[in-house]
């Protein structure tokens, strides 16, 4: 019997993955996994279980009334989970918190496999997990810093489903995680919570523009790996902006995707005026009109708040309205992230 993996993404950023049997309704599969999705009648009458299917294929069902789900709503991706029967893996956005559905963040442990410094700018942390972790490319986890009682948030830089997971961590002098990583030993066990976040790769239906600031490159490495494995032929352009030359890390990994993705291109940009880099300035100064495709483009941005604000202002000032604009703001010591 076929079984499909359904990602339930709650409005508080928590994501839970469930298995849905062939012919099974999402609401029933969620209950079987002890997740109480919103519902009242469960007969397609009240509309209480209405959610948004963000990717995947499914049978909408025909045992519901128009007052519960109109044809326009269905056309826009809304579904009734009491009727929806997946026919592939799906991502479903649930318009309430995980706590309201009697579920919560999941925790798991991992062991340090490798710690690799890159200049004085960043550290690549690789962890081995007992069971391959499910997450959406672009999401993050909270990693407990041993002995501190605190955690730090980092985006996955690897693809979902791997026995080894990776993170690109900004090196901060005196930083809690940076200091710990300087003395971290292979084999040390860490506790992680997640996956989390509403910043993740949606179903690809048009050209993509990726904008990465510093270690905001991490989620795009995860996305690019997934796209390469899917043999995507969609146009993808990445602009990777940093402050200093030394902040440009893992460029060789990005370069490798130009050989695996037929229509992938990228450029790097350095802001520092004294740099000898061929492209200097801000990311917004290096967005060619053609990659915006007249607005028919999905834009993903991960970087510090000033970069996110600058790109939004650039789009507004130039009358650019992308089909969708997904962004995540991060700050070096933030415990939580802000995404849209």
TrEMBL record:
Q: Domain of life of the organism in this record?
A: Bacteria
Specify the species.
Ensifer oleiphilus
Segments forming domain 2Fe-2S ferredoxin-type: 4-98
For this entry, the protein name equals Ring-hydroxylating dioxygenase ferredoxin reductase family protein
Q: Which UniProt keywords apply?
A: Dioxygenase, Oxidoreductase
Q: Where is the FAD-binding FR-type domain?
A: 105-202
Entry's InterPro entries? 2Fe-2S_ferredoxin-like_sf, 2Fe-2S_ferredoxin-type, 2Fe2S_fd_BS, BenC-like_FAD_NAD-bd, Beta-grasp_dom_sf, Cbr1-like_FAD-bd_dom, FAD-bd_FR_type, Flavoprot_Pyr_Nucl_cyt_Rdtase
Could you say which cofactors this protein requires?
Answer: [2Fe-2S] cluster
Cross-referenced PROSITE patterns: 2FE2S_FER_1, 2FE2S_FER_2, FAD_FR
Which NCBIfam families does the protein's record reference? BenC (NF040810)
Single annotated GO MF:
2 iron, 2 sulfur cluster binding
The question of whether Oxidoreductase is a record keyword is answered with yes
């Amino acid at each position: 019997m076929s079984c499909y993996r359904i990602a339930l993404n709650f409005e508080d950023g928590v994501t839970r993955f469930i298995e849905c049997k062939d012919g099974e309704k999402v609401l029933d599969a969620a209950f079987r996994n002890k997740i109480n999705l919103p519902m009242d009648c469960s007969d397609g009458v009240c509309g209480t279980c209405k959610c948004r299917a963000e990717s995947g294929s499914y049978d909408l069902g025909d045992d519901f009334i128009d007052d519960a789900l109109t044809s326009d709503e269905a056309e826009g991706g809304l579904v009734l989970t009491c009727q929806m029967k997946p026919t592939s893996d799906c991502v479903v956005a649930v318009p309430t918190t995980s706590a309201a559905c009697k579920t919560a963040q999941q925790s798991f442990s991992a062991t340090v496999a490798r710690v690799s410094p890159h200049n004085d700018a960043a550290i690549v942390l690789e962890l081995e997990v007992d069971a391959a972790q499910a997450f959406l490319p672009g999401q993050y986890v909270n990693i407990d810093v041993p002995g501190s009682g605190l955690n730090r948030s980092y985006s996955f830089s690897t693809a979902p489903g791997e026995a080894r997971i990776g993170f690109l961590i900004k090196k901060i002098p005196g930083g809690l995680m940076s200091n710990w990583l300087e003395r971290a030993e292979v084999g040390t066990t860490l506790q992680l919570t997640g996956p989390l976040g509403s910043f993740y790769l949606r179903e690809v239906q048009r050209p993509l523009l990726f904008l990465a600031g510093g270690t905001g490159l991490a989620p795009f490495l995860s996305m690019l790996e997934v796209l390469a494995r899917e043999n995507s032929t969609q146009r993808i352009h990445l602009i990777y902006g940093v402050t200093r030359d030394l902040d440009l890390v893992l460029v060789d990994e990005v370069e490798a995707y130009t050989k695996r993705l037929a229509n992938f291109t990228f450029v790097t940009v350095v802001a520092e005026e004294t740099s000898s880099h061929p492209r200097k300035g801000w990311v917004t100064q290096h967005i060619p009109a053609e990659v915006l495709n007249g607005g028919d483009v999905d834009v993903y941005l991960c970087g510090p708040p000033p970069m996110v604000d600058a790109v939004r202002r650039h789009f507004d000032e130039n009358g650019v309205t992308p089909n969708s604009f997904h962004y995540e703001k991060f700050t070096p010591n933030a415990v939580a992230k802000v995404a849209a």
